[in-house]
Amino acid sequence: MTRLESATAALAYQRQWFAGLRDSVAAGRPYALVNADAPQEILRAMGIPYVVNQWWASIVTAKQVAPQSLEVVARTGYPDDSRQYDVLALGSRGLSAAEAPWGGLPKPDLVLAELSGDATGKVFEAWTDDPSIGYFAYERTAAIPPAGPWWELAPRRWNEVFGRERIELMADENRLLIEFLEQRTGRVFDLARLEAVMALINEQEEYNLRTRDLIAAARPAPVRVSDTIPAVMIPQWHRGSEWGRDAARTLRDEVAALVDEGAAVTVPERTRLMWVGRGLWSDTSMYRRFEDEFGAVFVWSMYLAIAADGYIRYGSDAITALAARFVGITDLLYAPPLAPEWYVKEARGHGVNGVVHLVADDVPGASFITLALEEAQIPVLEIRASNADPRTLDLGWVEALMTEFISGLQR
Amino acid sequence: MTTELERAARGARQAAAQAAASGQSVVGIVGRDVPALLVVAAGARPFRIAPHDEPTDEADAVMGRAVDRAAARVLAAALSGSLDFLTGIFVSRDSEASVRLFYTLQQLNRRGRFTVPVHLVDQVHQNRESTIRYNTYQLAQMWEAVERWTAVPITARSLWQAYVAVADVRGQLESARTERRANRRVGTVSLYGYRVACALPPAESLPLLQTALAEQSLAEQTRTDATSPFPVFLTGSAPLGDEVYRAVEDAGANVVAEDHDWGDPILSDRLPANIDAPKDDLLRELALGRLRGAPASASSTMAARAEATRDGIRTSGARGLLSVVRPYDEAPAWDWRRQSELAGVPAVMLRGDEAEDPDRIARAVESLRAAS
After folding, report:
1. Average pLDDT for residues A69-92, to the nearest whole number?
2. Mean pLDDT value across residues B199-213
3. Do A121 and A227 belong to one domain?
4. Which of A:136-155 have CB within 8 Å of B?
5. Closest residue on chain B to A367 (Cα)
């Protein structure tokens, strides 16, 4: 089957957008570099363009200049074996013009991150070695056990999932960020604009929810994960824009049409798989081989599913609703008991036969995710590897493990 | 020669278990950010858990290997049953490893694999009013938890008594720190002093600290400047035991100051100035006490760490900066560039699996001495 038009369109849009950003920066206008786990909506509302750190890391990785970028980090005097995914953007600033992907990442005026782990804050502080770059950090607080299924409670009853005090802290920090941005850029925050951004995001994620549900119910799988990832994630980086909302609607429409047509990634579909953790999707040939040889198809990755379940927040106080969106977004993916319960629910909803679980160094509760899936009678293959540092990743080893796992599922 | 202080530090868990067996509530503490004052005020014996136990396959399987060994060792102790005597455990949010340890223990609680109640004191670390409010709330939660665990209410009187007892211990530790900064007290003895102060109740730790200080002073009367060891400031990972300190001393040097959470930074966390203040004000003071204490690597900026290291070197008279960084303890390696730039003395960092190897430490000390 051919690539989703939504994916192709999103990739084309992102190239065009990034070229526009470079032009804008060259003309002297500010932009921000933001870690994915920190709120971006205030920047959107204030008209400050931003690049998401993880998106740029994915470009650096796909263009195979991650090792060179990490060498730059090491030459600067910082470790190149810590937070590699977070630090690729910083390192990529030192690439030569010939090496730099997409013309290179321009120097940001400010960087924004949440203090997750022990070193993410330091990665972003390192940008301030250039004193013209401003830095704002959000605190990272710890998850609490939710009062029930978080995917049902979070859109409206978020205090019961994340805790009121955590949300109040982040809401206060949202206000501090607004002050910081107003002082640095001279722009004025408009609450009505943020409310419009939040409404657009809810619309966008409602489309993603329907897309996720369509794929979960479809037999056989109508689309590849490697296709839905760009079709979901690029619009996610543009959350709060009309383009982002419209792209999510287009994806929903395209998937619905494929389901109606009875489209299939592979025929016959013998094994349905779920990929838990960050993706190893830069080289899709391995997955095609699994489809061709085993009739095995990955029907789930976190990117569409978390967009569907993790982002929608309905509330009249946009500052607090925004805090309620981000205060625990990482917990939903990694921290027990929130993450394990959700993966089990998603695995069941998609009717998967097995799960491949990529465990990165910085994931707090990986074993409990695996355990919960196995207790739900879902076989799990754990792969312990970093998706950010090609120097430590042996794709041949990964493929061999997965081949053995899939073969085992089909015996 | 094994001193009383060392024996007490090594035997602290056994002493705590015996106290528990005799009916006393013993509350475990992981990390520097849990104020023992509240535990003492609730009538319990505070016991900060040192990372003595070797990690086990089960601990590695449950929490993953990619986590600082200190947390893996505490988990191994929990899984082995050797912490079952505790009434409860407070875990600091002082590092990613501690948070992982908390999540792990919490899940083991849910599954009945580990039955001691666990509570995260989720104090975060930016110096902002919003953070102070959040941390104050966290301490209020801790207050409730320790009262629940011990069934003993914290009162104005019990707080005052706890304050006096904890302040007396701090006074001894401050005297010892003064001696050490003058290179008149060896690092291992100070390390044991801090461990005893954190792992024994004030009534037991105070006489031990007093005796150790007196013995050390007598011993130093015979020392001349010519035999003074080379003074080193230690940064990097918090040591698991005393091995790094011993290796430094065996190389003819002395750790005269450090910035890890089993050392001098303990004294930088101030007690509330007004212990009689209303509860909310008192907890706010307690939160501020930690927030304005010495910056820890995992929870502070590189800039703050570099300034603190520079100041610590100046105050202690250290002539070399040694960083020993274990695998999966990410933050110290990030701090190193600015620390070494600002140190003003020769600096060496050891990283990785062999960082704590005595021969490597000896060579590092030698290079510091040569460059000094």
Report:
1. 95
2. 94
3. no
4. 137, 139-143, 145
5. B62
